[in-house]
Structure formats: structure tokens, C-alpha cells
Amino acid sequence: MKAIRRFTVRPVLPEPLRPLGELARNLRWSWHAETRDLFQSVDPGRWASSGGDPVRLLGSVPSARLAELAGDRRFLRRLTAVADDLRDYVTGDRWYQTQPEDRPAAIAYFSPEFGITAALPQYSGGLGILAGDHLKAASDLGVPLIGVGLLYRHGYFRQTLSREGWQEEHYPVLDPNELPLTQLREADGSPARVSLALPGGTALHARIWLADVGRVPLLLLDSDVEENDLGERGVTDRLYGGGSEHRLLQEMLLGMGGVRAVRTYCRLTGHPEPEVFHTNEGHAGFLGLERIAELADAGLDFDAALEAVRAGTVFTTHTPVPAGIDRFEQRLVARHFGPDAELPRIDVERILQLGRETYPGGQPDLFNMAVMGLRLAQRANGVSLLHGRVSREMFRGLWPGFDADEVPITSVTNGVHAPTWVAPEVFRLGARRIGAQRAEDALTVGGSDRWDSVADIPDEEIWALRGELRARLVEEVRRRLWASWRQRGAGTAELGWIDGVLDPDVLTIGFARRVPSYKRLTLMLRDPDRLTRLLLHPERPVQIVVAGKAHPADDGGKRLIQDLVRFADDPRVRHRIVFLPDYGMAMAQKLYQGCDVWLNNPLRPLEACGTSGMKAALNGCLNLSVLDGWWDEWYRPDFGWAIPTADGACYDPDRRDDIEAAALYDLLEQRVAPRFYERGRGGLPDRWIEMVRRTLAQLGPKVLAGRMVREYVDRLYTPAAHAHRAMDPQAARDLAAWKAKVRAAWHQVSVDHVEASVPPAECTGAARAAVAELGSTLALRVRVSLGPLGPDDVEVQAVAGRVDEEDALTDATAVALKPVGEAGPDGRWVYEGPLRLDRTGPYGYTVRVLPAHRLLASPVELGLVTVPARDAGEAAGVVLR
User: Fold this and answer.
1) For 736-740, which contacts have Cβ atoms below 8 Å and span 24 or more sequence positions?
2) Could you say which EC number(s) this protein's record lists (predicted)?
3) Longest dimension (CA), the chain
4) Strands, DSSP E only, in 215-371?
5) Does 841 or 22 have the greater pLDDT score?
6) Cβ(233)–Cβ(202) under 8 Å?
7) Regarding beta strands 794-803 and 843-851, do their DSSP bridges make them parallel or antiparallel, or are they unpaired?
8) What is the pLDDT of residues 583-636, one digit of tens each?
9) What is the per-residue pLDDT across 388-435, written as a single tens digit (0 to 9) for each?
């Protein structure tokens, strides 16, 4: 018989052991080795069977064992020390508390998924892992962040393989009471709730679960409550599941319900209200609408509320392709807003306009979540330098008239949370050189450009460590492979060969990630015979460990997995290449730590950042990657290899894959494998070890999540907080009125004439083809018409730089010109200023007029610009050669 209901009976801990409950509920244990060691000592066997989950462990330990521990003075001393350490960590000053007092009082960080630990499976891939690392790093730094997400009752799917190697999905039901969560409750003990109005007079209710991520509270909304009908209960059933309306309701609950949850949490706990709201991808974009509604209820009109909300909002885009953005039919969005649904006091057309694709090539009948995110945020960023450039190009239609380089989307390159991903052995190796506290600070706070102490570690210790981690990975792979084959239907008698899978002394390559087509899981199979020769080389063999999940609806991705599995099933090579199903955080940690080389071969430039190679690098694993994402930014031959790409439009996709696969094989055959197996005088691979050393010393400080979060604080959060404080209700009304005035009058703004005077001694020839000397100065004089606007409303700039064959400016810089006197009788204004010729070669300039206001984050913000008509500068020397 099966139970009709399942629930967890938690043990009552003896009084001396009560701190164990507090330690289990704070997810700091997921990256704090001493806490994990303490829980392991409670019952090593049950710790292993619980998957390293303290909540599950404590739910399974017999009362007799708890009573024994309650009388064990040595254990109690350890428990007291670990509990005191957590208390100091949570309440003491950290990096943020040493910074200037103008920093934000609090930041709300919204994400559709969070990868904190395998014990809380609320993530599908890189976006969630990045969000989890962001929270952990913020905690280590003392940044007052509040995380906001959804609690999915099925999490993301568990992956198995059929006998034929086809991916199969399973959705285990998660009981929140078995997870490291507590329910947020009102003062009277009743569960705290948020609700959204639905069309037809119904409502979507959700309760709020709290996960303590060190110092950072993470609020997770759960719609599986009795007040909801069956359909509404399923809104938070699966991560990225369901159809369009299901996804829309998830994103409304995340954004709008999330803001309401933050308000509830701050009211109940006294936590400072956020001054900054950070939208991690467009899924949470509706948070801006909720905040507009809050301000509208306080008396602001829509336009003023929009300005106030934008001032304190940061938007991070993670996708380099339009297809990766959530888009909804406008009719569907309109049905969920207005008098019969949510935000009844806001005109639905104003809401739709925020997400409408009004630019060339857009589809105006679709509601684009990223477009709304950008329109609701005064500050936006991509997640690597290259991705920032790609994003500026992709969204430039929102700022017509400007070159892509000026689109106001910056970049903050992602980082990874070192204490989560670094092997304990690697940490101890560093701690022996500089001390445990300095090593911990180096991994969390960061701040240095290099870890020079790595130079003091002897080659023998580095090579021994790498061998230890590789051997541990081999054992892990065999264990998981045996379980996978048993699940696929193999009998025990068939599986003796698994004892010989992989070799602890063979060069080991890792490849693990989601399996969309652009990541090219099977590029390594492009020439199966050549790959086989690499795997079975008699002197320099390689072995490859592969893992990854395809989206349940992506049959193309599933076919790629099946192709890889079928190749790996071949008895000739199955001891050298394996596919491990059910890729997740627990498996990833072993892979990053044990592999010698981390392989990444996406189609450039479709990898926004790609952080798996960062985690591998922190463990001394070398990267072999296409120059995409973070590797394009930080690659050096000292610590890895770049796979050449064939990005040109002249190649069809098959031809491109052939070329890049051949380049990959060449690198493995001619450079990677020989370097690994080459031995120096002492019998060690000296040159390989030196690359490991440089990876740790030079890449290590760069790839830290601590570095990333500090950049967010300095470059985005703090300016956003300042803008938020400056945008009081009257300032918001004034800015909205000014923008309306400028937009209405902009068609009357023109550049009517441009003059440039060049001293005769410095310039010869016709003005149109002048030749000037480096260091000389042009005196510019410009006449502009501003209509009803005045000099306080605009900035007139000279923009100068190199010119290409078509006279397009490149590497340009802008210089503000100054108004001279008042407007003339014809209503025109005269602006003057010097333009210094600071570079040689083909050089040019133009002038332009931009809106200007002290509360704009960028003069590009309004997407308005006026440049000269062609004849305005014909005689003015627009190009100097």
C-alpha cells in the first residue's frame, strides 16, 4: 500500500544539541568545511546516505545516538565553537561595514532560480548557480542583500538514461518541511502570505519560505497552498515548465509577489527596506510595475513613479540571443492587468508600452521581458566584456541614433564562489603557506591582482594534489557509472568492466553543462575515428568525462546526448570516455576538482560568460576553450589554450563545425597531451605544473564572486542608491515633466552650422581634406536651434576620433562645447570650444546635441540625439586626413 500523504517527523534535539538545528538551517554549512565536518561526525554513514544534507541527517539519527552526543564533552566543545563562529559570521563587521556610509541600506536581488546547494534543488543551470554564488559572496562580504525567488515543488528534473541512451526526466516531489527552510510567519503565528489578483475575480496566493544563506535571507514564494484552486497551486510546480500563461503567472508572482514578500519580510523583521532592486534576467521584470503601483498609491502619477523606480533599479541580462528572452503575446499580458485583474489603477496600455518591441525588426505585438527590464532600469549590464558588446548591439534599437558602443549597457564579468567550488585540499595547500584566515580572505573578499604565494608551493606538492583529486574523480565516476548502468537495466554480471573505467594517471578532460545546440556537446564527435585515436593513444592517451541535461522539450538536445552516450557505450572506448547522467551541483564539484583540462566549445559569441571553467581554474584545472564569454577576456597562453574559431559569415554551420573540431583535435594532439606527459629532470611535468601555478596565481583572483559583488556594489548598487535618494517625489515629477518637454520639442532641435578654424601654420590644403599636425588645436564654432529648449536642457558635443574608409568614427571621444552669450535674433545659440588633435592618421569629428539633466545616468538615456545635416559642415573640415 502507498501512503495518501507524506510528511516528516523531526526529532527533538536534546538541549545541549539545540545549536545543531540552527547550524542545519543556515546554509552556510554548504560552503563551511568545519560545519560539514561536525555534521559528518554525528553519524558518518547517515551523513553519506543523506547526500551531505544536515536536515535529512538530523531527521534520521536515532535518539540513542543523540543522547550519546549530548553527553560527549569533546563533541559539545566542537559544537560550541562552530555555533559561535556562525554567530560571529552573521553579526560581525565584514568588508561592506568598512566602506563609506553612502552605500545602500539594503539591496533586493530577484532571480527565477538559485543554486545554493544540492540539498535545495531550485536551479537548472548557470543562471541559478550564478545567483547562488552572488548571495554567498554577498554574505561573505557583509552586503545587505535580500534574495527573492520561487520555491518549485518539483525543482528541476532529475535525469536518467534509457537503455538506448535517451534522456528521461523525473520530477520528485519536494516537501518544504524536509528542506533547510522555515516559513515566514506573522506576529500571531499565522503563515505570511502574498496574493495576486487574477482575471475573473479570483486570486493567486503564495506563502513565503525563508532560507538563511549565511547573512543573506532568501525569500521563496510557494503557490501550493489550500487557498488556491488546482491550477493556481501548480504555478510554482516546475522550474521553466508549462505554457505561456503558466510562465507569465510565474513571472508575475516572482516580480510583483516578490516585492510584496520583501515588504512583508522587512515589516516583520525590521530589516532595512531596499534602496536598490536588482533584476537578474528579465523573468523578474514585473517587480518594476509593482513598485510603480506602490508609488502611484502614494500619490505619484505614472510617469513620475516610473522615474523614481528606474533610479533605484539594476537590470542584468544573461542572454546573447533574442531567442533566449521570454516574450508573451500582448493580449495575454493585457488580460492579467487592468480593472479586472492586477494593478487596476494603471492604464494597461502604459504597461504594454514598457515591453513593446518598437524598434526596427521588432514584433510590436509581443511583450518582451528584457525590453521591459531595460526600460524600467536606469542601470544595466551584461556578464562579460564580450557579452556587454553583444548586448549593446542586440538592444541598440532602444536607443536609435547612437552607435552600439554608446548604448548604456555596461558589463560586470561573472565570478564564482570559491569556498563552494574549491576542493578542501586546495584550500589547505594555500593555508599552509599564508595561514587559514588569510587564505579564507583571499577566496572571499579578494582584492589582489595575483596570488603570489602560489609561487612558494613546491612542484611536488602541486602534482601530488592534482593526482589525488584526479584519483578521487575516477572513483566517483565509477560509482556513478555503475548506478547509471544498473538504472538502464544492466545486470551486475555485465558490469565488471566498470572497475577499469578511467585511469588515475591519464590526462582527464571535463565537459559538463546544459545541452542547448550552441554549446556543441558533440563537437568532439565530429571525427569519431580521430577521437578514438586520441583516447587510445599508446603513449599519450586522454580520457573524457561528460555530463549535461537537455531541456525536457528539446528533442534536438536529447539526440545530442544520445549520440554521445552511444559513442561512450562502445566497448572499445568506454574505459576512456563516459557520460554521467543527472548533472547537478554535487557532481559538478567533483568534476571541477578532478579534471586536468576543462573543455568549452560554444559557438562564439553565444556564451554570455560561462562560469564552469572558472570553477575548474580555482582547482588548478587548465582551460581549453573557444574565445567566448570570460575566456575571451582573460585568456593567456600561460594558463590555457584558445580553440581557433571560424566566425566568418562565409562558413555554413557544418563547415564551421568541421573547421573548429579539427582545430580542437590538433590542440589536443600537438600541444595539450604532449605538455601533460612531458617529464623534466625530476620526473615531473614541469611545464604543465607551471601552467597550473599560473592559473591559480593569475586567474584565481579574477574569477572570484567576491570580486564580482564588489564591482556591483561600487559601480551599480551605490550609484543606484544615490539616484534613488535624489529622486524624491518632487524630483521625480520634475524629471518626468522635463522628459515630456524635451521629447515634445526635440523635432525642433537642429545643428545649423559648424565652423572650424585651423591656424595657417598648422594646416595646409583645402579645408575638406586638411592635414594638421599632432598636438594642434581646432577652434570649433557651432550654431544650433533649440526651439523652446534652453542650454540647461541640452549638451552640445564635439565627437572626434579615427575614421574608416567610409568616414565612420571609431574609438571616438566626446568634448562638451560651451554656449556663448544669449540666443541671437534668429533664436539660434552659438557654442564654441577647442578640439585637440591627439592622434595621427585619418581623423574626423562631428558635433551633436543631446538632452542633459543632472538626474540622468547617461546622456544617451532618452535615445534622443541631433547631428548636423550634411551641408551644415560641408565647409567646416569634418574630416582631416
Assistant:
1) 736/301, 736/303, 736/304, 736/306, 736/307, 737/303, 738/793, 738/853, 739/303, 739/307, 739/851, 739/862, 740/303
2) 2.4.1.1
3) 101
4) 216-222, 276-280, 313-316, 327-329, 366-368
5) 22
6) no
7) antiparallel
8) 999 999 999 999 999 999 999 999 999 999 999 999 999 999 999 999 999 999
9) 999 999 999 999 989 999 999 999 999 999 999 999 999 999 888 888
